[in-house]
Specification:
255 residues; alpha+beta; Ubiquitin-like (UB roll); Fumarate Reductase Iron-sulfur Protein, Chain B, domain 2; 2 domains; five-stranded mixed beta sheet; 8 helices
């Protein structure tokens, strides 16, 4: 006879009917849970029970459930994406928690990320920052030969590291100042490093930083909480790169 490996957990989850409604924590006791369940699967189980009871299911975001899109972002016991480093919420499994443990689950907290409902927040501020400057100009026509624009391996690797950002918003929620500088710097650094991004390089740095400030994000305090929770391990070195790009643009009189 195999030992029972199922878990029982107490889930304290944030419930908020809308952006202008006061929210509250709601407590649920769940048993018979598989240690191999991810957090979205845990919420699926909870919502199935709530639906059967005729109650409102918990609203939460998820899409790929493979750690690619970042839609599942939420805060577990005060840490965006939970205590395990290098992964998103959908990659956090119940085997990392103890039987009988109480887990607190709430949305990403930031003024620039208003709550829509329950665990769903409006992250469209990131979209507006990208629209402000996250593009490159290219000539229409057939694709150029791959070797026409040689990129040194070291530079290509740095650009790929920055491009790994999935825009989940964990960095904002973890920062005491709700700064978005890790996200913005990753996007600016990625394009500033590559030949294709040179045409708008100065304008991009200025436009995206201004858009970031206009969205109400805070300033970086160099506490590195953003780096700690980033599921893709993006370094705060990209913030230093963004600051250099911004200063160079200002000195060139791009404002």
């Amino acid at each position: 006879m195999q030992p029972d490996t199922s878990l029982s957990l107490t889930l304290k989850i944030w419930r908020q009917a809308g952006p202008t409604v006061l929210g509250r924590f709601e407590t649920h006791h769940l048993s018979g849970l598989s240690p191999d369940m991810s957090f979205p699967e845990l919420l699926d189980v909870l919502n199935e029970r709530l639906t059967q009871e005729g109650r409102e299911p918990v609203a939460f975001d998820s899409d790929c459930r493979e750690g690619i899109c970042g839609m599942c972002g939420a805060v577990v016991d005060g840490i965006p994406h939970g205590p395990e480093r290098g992964g998103t919420l959908c990659q956090l499994h119940l085997r990392h928690f103890k039987d009988g443990q109480t887990i607190t689950l709430e949305p990403l907290r930031a003024r620039a990320f208003p709550v829509i409902k329950d665990l769903v927040v409006d992250r469209s501020a990131f979209d507006r920052i990208m629209q402000a400057g996250g593009f490159v100009s290219v000539n229409a026509g057939s694709a150029p030969e791959a070797n026409t624009l040689p990129v040194p391996q070291r530079v290509a690797e740095q650009a790929m590291d920055a491009a790994a950002c999935i825009g989940c918003g964990a960095c904002v929620a973890a920062c005491p100042n709700a700064a978005a500088m890790l996200f913005v710097s990753a996007k600016i650094s990625q394009l500033a490093l590559l030949p294709q991004g040179q045409a708008e390089r100065s304008r991009r740095a200025l436009a995206m930083v201004v858009a970031m400030d206009n969205e109400g994000f805070g300033s970086c305090g160099n506490q590195r909480e953003c780096e700690r929770v980033c599921p893709k391990g993006i370094s705060i070195r990209s913030i230093a790169k963004m600051n250099r790009e911004y200063l160079a643009a200002v000195m060139r009189g791009e404002e």
